[in-house]
Each structure stands twice: as C-alpha cells, then as structure tokens.
Amino acid sequence: MEPQSVALVGISRDTGEWAFNILENLLSYGYQGRIYPINSNTSEILGIKTYSNVTEVTDDIDLAIIATPRSPVPSLVKECIDSNILSIVVVAQGFADASDDQGKQLQKQITEIVQNSPARLIGPNTLGTANAFIDFSSSFVKIEMKKEPIGIICQTGTFFVGFQDLRLMGKGVDLGNACDIDFADSLEYFESDPETKLVALHIEGIQDTERFINTARRVARIKPLLALKTGKSEQAAKAAQSHSGSLTGSNKVWEAAFKQSGVIQVGDLEEFVDLARTFSVLPLMKRPKIGVATFSGAMGVMVMDSCQQYNLELGRLSAKTKRLLHAISPPWLNVGNPADIWPAVANSRLFTKGTRQGLEALLSDNQLGAVLFICAPFDMKFTTELCQLLNELAATYRDKPLVGCLWGPYGDEAIKELQNAGKVAAFPTPERAVKALARLNEYSQFRRRL
User: Are 175 and 154 in contact (CB under 8 A)?
Assistant: First the structure.
C-alpha cells in the first residue's frame, strides 16, 4: 500500500491514449518513489532507464507489478522473490477466472510459490492497490484519486474508477482472484491505518470465511465496515465464479455472518455509495432520535413515513428548543418535529438568519442525536449561501451529524459542494437521507453496546 520503490515487470513502450501504461500513470499522479521499468526491448521509457529483468536492479524494491500475459507469470513471481522483492501484484487475467484448465494450473503454481516464501501477492486478475496519500496506483487504468478517509477492498476494478456521486478512492485494494492476500489481510491493514475512517467492501466470495468473520468483528469495533455482497442469485453466483474464481456461498449464510461480525450490509450500489458518503463525513449518533427542519411541510410528512419504514424515530423537542422555535415563528404555527422553518425564513426576509436560528435550535438540543435539513436551492446565490451555512454549522456542532435533503434545480450542485467540503452528508430524496441516518444510528448503537 505504501511502496517507496516499484518494479514494473513487462511494462510496454506504448504510451498515450489507450496505451494503459502504468508508468505513464504513475508519472502523471506525481508519484515520488523510485520506479524501475523492466523491459528487455528498449533502454528507456518516458525518459526512465529500463532493465532487462529485476535481477539487474541493485537497489531494494518494495513492490513488483507484473503486467505480462499469463504464461510467464509463475517464473516471474519466483524471479522477484529470488531478488528479495516480497510484495507482488499480478495484473493479468486468465487464471482461476478462466474457463480452461491451464489458467487454474497457473494460479495453483503461483499460490504454491508464494506460500513457500515470505512474499505476499495481490491477484492475479487485478488492478492492485491505490493510495491517494502518496499519489500511487498500480492500476493500468488511469484513475482519479482523492485523499478521502475511505478504504476500499474489492474484487473488481470498478470501484477504483469510482462513481458519479462519489470518488471512493482514498486507499484501495483490488483482490482480484485473491490467491494469497485476501479480505482478512486487507482489513488488518486498514484496522490500524490512521488515514482510514471507513472500510467499504465489495465481496463476490471468500475462501476463508471464519478468518474473515473474526477479523471483521474486531475491526468493526473501531471502524464502520460496509459490505456489498454480490453473486446472490444462482445465475449471478456462476458469473462471479468466472469473474474472480470466487466461492460465493448462500445469501442467508452471508447475512448471518455480517450481522454476527458487526458489518453493515448494503442492498445495492446506490446504498453502498450513500453510506460511504455518510460514514466518511459524519460523527456517530450519541442519541437514537433525530430532529428535522424543513422548508416544506409535505417533505416533512415524507420524512415521517420514511422514519417508520426504516425504524428511525423523531425525537421529542426539549422545552428550550420549542421556545427558540416559537420565538422565530409566527403565532399561528404549530411548532413540532419536523419543524417547518419556512415561515420564519420568509418572515425575516433573510435566508441565512432564519435558517441558522432554526437549525441551531435543533442542533443544540441534547435530546436529539442528529439533524436532517430539507430544502430546495433555487438559484446559485442561494446554493452558495446554503452550503456555506451548513458547513459552518457542521463545524460548530461537530459531534452531531447534520444531513441535508436537497432537491430542486440546484440540488445536485449543492450536494456535490457539500460532499467536497466533507462535513455534511446530503441526498436528493427524503427516503435516501432517512435510510442513511437509520444505518448510521444502527452502527452507533452497536458501538455504544461495546
């Protein structure tokens, strides 16, 4: 994960668009470690001296990335180990994921070589690792990395590329076929990593489930673990077997294993991204009930329905909070939770003043564990002021989660701006916002019981 020197075994001379050149990618990221291209057909690539094989390199090498076709991989792995390179990534496909016996035999050879040595190997069939904190990735696909407190452990390069709603890549491990390094090994790294606040897992299948459960149970006590288990249907399980050579197992068994170990199982990719955003920016809830401030009474009703659906309770407002809300509201308004603060905002004719007063009343209420704010940004000026206000409030009340439900013509812009600031989690619908808070509450209660 943190190599200071890298050998690129089998790196191509081809550069530019569609070359998928790892060396070119590393240089573009600004990686500061030493790079040793291994290619016997040229003396340099992109101005960097090349070597015919790793045995010619006299310096210590932390990591070898083997980017050749599958057939020579076992001998190259052995050559790396004989050269005292003890961390290896194998990029090529066509091993246990292949339909032919040769691929399975090649993976068996690699596994035996590594097991009889002190070396550790990621792959084959992998993009390897990524670490935005040192501007490094072994991926042949150029990816956008950001110093997010999110660690990804996956069995596909999809999560390295990221999604429109969220760049997941703070640090990542694509296990590929996982012939050596597996989920438990990767969890042990993130367990003690100070730069990782949340670990998100994409799981097709696991060989050593007992070790995974024991490791996950330990890590979940200090960091939230999200898991998207795929290959749940019979047809999908067969596809997973051909994709990464994984043993998928029964869905009910997986659900029980996750629950037993404190892992937060997500149902789909949308929830995976939503919860990654939530847990990476929000503190845990100290109380199980929430307060809601809304510009729309109708949206407040939708929140109440969602709270019932996802087993999240609206809190009873303290006497002090009611007094504060009454003070800014017209006398005809029935103050409650959800709190309709639009009349106060409209009455003051100052967006930030009325909104701040309403939100501060809820955020300062010790009986509430989190606050959800519902609003429709209607122009760019409004959006800018809104995001600035929410970020300021989140910084002031840093121990209480603040979540936004932002829709309307500039809702997407506001959500992205808040996401980039990393203090407030925001969503386009009440259902997604409430569901995220409900899962945050579940994990918070799990931690309080420890």
Answer: yes
Q: How far separated are the first and last CA of the chain, in Å rounded?
A: 30
- Mapped onto helix, strand or coil, the DSSP state of residue 45 is strand
Distance CA 415, CA 406 (A): 7
CA distance 228 to 224: 13
What does the CA dihedral 392, 393, 399, 402 come to, rounded to 10 degrees? Answer: -110
Q: Give φ, ψ of 64 to 5 degrees.
A: -110, 130
Q: Token pair for residue 36?
A: 């040793």
CATH assignment, 1-125 = 3.40.50.720
The domain segmentation of the chain, as residue ranges, is 1-125, 144-281, 284-449
Among the listed residues 401, 403, 400, 397, the one whose alpha carbon sits nearest the alpha carbon of residue 427: 403
Q: Which CATH architecture has domain 144-281?
A: 3-Layer(aba) Sandwich (3.40)
Percentage of the chain modeled with pLDDT above 70: 94
78 in Cβ contact with 113 (< 8 Å):
yes
Q: DSSP H helical segments within 286-410, as ranges?
A: 297-309, 319-328, 342-348, 351-363, 380-396
Q: Rounded to two decimals, what is the model's pTM?
A: 0.91
CA distance 111 to 127: 18
Q: Which CATH architecture has domain 284-449?
A: 3-Layer(aba) Sandwich (3.40)
CB burial readout 220-257, b (16+ within 10 A) else e? beebbbbbbbbbbeeeebeebbebbbbebbeeeebeeb
For residue 153, the surrounding DSSP H or E stretch is: strand 150-154
Q: Kindly list the distances between the CA atom of residue 176 and the CA atoms of 91, 95, 321, in Å, as whole numbers in the listed order.
A: 9, 10, 53
Judge if 1-125 and 284-449 fold alike in CATH terms: yes
User: Mind listing the pLDDT tens digit for each residue in 241-292?
Assistant: 554 555 456 778 888 889 888 999 999 999 999 999 999 999 999 999 999 9
Spatial distance between the Cα atoms of 399 and 406, rounded to a whole number of angstroms: 22
